[in-house]
## 1
Amino acid sequence: MKEQLEEIRRKAIALLDECADIGLLDDLRVKYLGKKGELTAILKQMGKLTAEERPAMGQLANKVRADIEEKIAEKSAQINEALEEARIAAETIDVTLPGKKQPVGRLHPLTKVLDEVKDVFLGMGFDIVDGPEVEYDYYNFTALNLPPDHPARDMQDTFYINDNILLRTQTSSVQVHVMENKKPPIRIISPGRVYRSDAMDATHSPLFHQIEGLVVDKGVTMADLSGTLDMLMKRLYGEKCEIRLRPHHFPFTEPSAEVDILCFNCGGKGCSMCKGEGWVELLGAGMVHPWVLENCGIDPEVYSGFAFGLGLERIVMGRYGINDLRMFYDNDVRFLGQF
Ligand code: FA5
């Protein structure tokens, strides 16, 4: 039996020494130490030994088991360590590889220039207010001296929700909301979307943006209007920028003017952009009509005011030399990425 035990130990240790696989290691453990393993089979024969032989054989058997267990533990640690090293080697990050580019978004040119316009007016002490895009007929037309059937409504046909509610055609509707809720002095701008059933072309869109301006106080004159707009245009386009005020008619201002700047495409010579005029229309403006002040509960004998409505798209076109307004809405990143 002694030889058998020695033989089991020798063979088991030799096989374990060569083992490099965790599954195989477990098979060897079962083969030698399991319930039906070789060592157990030998121990079952202990009963055949004499009482004198048994303690020495028992001791040897325990020693053989301990040696095999120790070898299995040592091998298991070696194999696991090798596996861990292989895993780390496979996961190694090459820090010299170029990184993956994350595309970064940017502000739309309309938003960028609107922010500049807001800055200019905030610097002059104006507040910025919001108004509804879905509007009552009263605020968009009637309160602005455009009663039902007034011919000037034809110039601003729009999208109607019902007879009384429409998509606003102009931010001038906000003038009425502001004057109804706040007494002079008033100094506000109100940017936002407006809608008209205009056909799309290089300078028109059925959805576009306006920035309304309104100042009401004692002693406000047309000179204040002209000075304010001149200052804005010079801040946006540089000191050399020229504007002109052209007599016009708006039912809600008296006197009224359209304000043009020297064509940013041809510098005044005449081109397709300015339709040969040399000037591009940017906004409508004028002194708030006394009836509009009265409609809003402000005494026109005491107060006067000026108002203007800028077309944001046209300003941005001038700012960056863009000759077709449709590009703002095409969502082409090759275009939008340039600003
Ligand atoms: C008005 O809308 C008046 N509410 C402006 C105003 C305000 C006058 C306060 C007096 C006092 P008008 O319809 O001209 O006016 O439009 C103003 C500006 O909006 C135009 O000068 C132009 O720059 C721009 N605009 C008008 N229609 C379109 C369109 N379809 N697409 C793009 N921009 C447009």
## 2
Amino acid sequence: MKANKIVAQLIGYFKTTFQQNPQLIFSPGRINLIGEHTDYNDGFAFPAAIDKGIYLAVEATEDDTSTIVALDAEEEYRFSTHDTLQPLAKRGWENYILGIVAELQKKGVDLPNFNLVFKGDVPIGAGLSSSAALENAVVFGLNHLFQLGISRKEMIFISQRAEHHFAGVKCGILDQYASMFGQKNRGLHLDCRTLTSTAYPMDLGDYEWVLIHTNVHHNLADSAYNHRRAVCEKVAQQFGVAALCDLSVKDLKTMETRLSADDYVKAAFIIEENERTLQAVKALMENDMGALGSLLFASHDGLSNKYEVSCAELDFLVDAAKASDAVIGARMIGGGFGGCTLNLMHTDKKQRFLEDIQPSYKAEFHQECTIYSVNIGEGTHLITNYE
Ligand code: GLA
């Protein structure tokens, strides 16, 4: 659905239900060109915000409860901002909003009640960070509405803590950063230790980014994610460094016999992936699309065989990409265990590949894969001009 149609729907719903004119916010999802699982190891990543995300309408209310509505799911939930909040056992969309409110309460903010309605055009569970988009939209909207004076940087930490405490995923800062700070047509080379980034124009010449969604999201994703993070922290501790990205592969080798084989391979993946991210920035700056593409394939190979966060559906799509002359690089993006592959495709050759991949994916997995073209957009912002 087109952006202005979604906005019109939100305004219509808000006016009819609450007899109010809301404030409107857009917060995007993200892709990550390379640098996967490096964020919680104080490494580098290379994300960009996309033009799909969460649209949110919010306004203060005099009522003694807040009403929050997920328009897509046609679900509503009520609570008071003065309650002590706990995550709901159903683990749904409500937890992201309750999590933000709980984090604001912890900061000592005396938050008034509000009405909030949201709708998205970013697929859920696709590895495109719909949850960070929602968290950022909520904290940004409340900050604007109640003039809380919270900086963008503080907001992304609030979003991250909401995810840790109310969604149970010990995520890094990649998604929240990219969604909040994204720049149109630019990728952000992000240093996750200093939380600073350099923006690079996405000038891809004859190539373009295309996402292919597996339409699967395997259940073990959250627990496996937390497990990977724990392994990384354990190895860093064994070396007496703050984070794994303080080590080189050579450093790691010196302790090979004192680590379990599995921990060694996982830690090596992180250090190699961090190195690949630096190489990818260089390749992009030198317009060397071939080198960039090879780094993407190498990243997927490590994610699948060393870090073990891929799945049969993602591997199938990347293997098909490798076999085609239309795609010069492809990898899974995000936490893994489902979601999308990101493909660097030759614009003039992509059509045949895209026509072939759909039936062959269906024949293999008995379900469709979905193709999205990627536009790189702005980070979280107010929508002021929607007429
Ligand atoms: C998820 C997390 C991020 C990051 C990626 C993997 O998207 O939320 O913090 O760790 O996985 O790069």
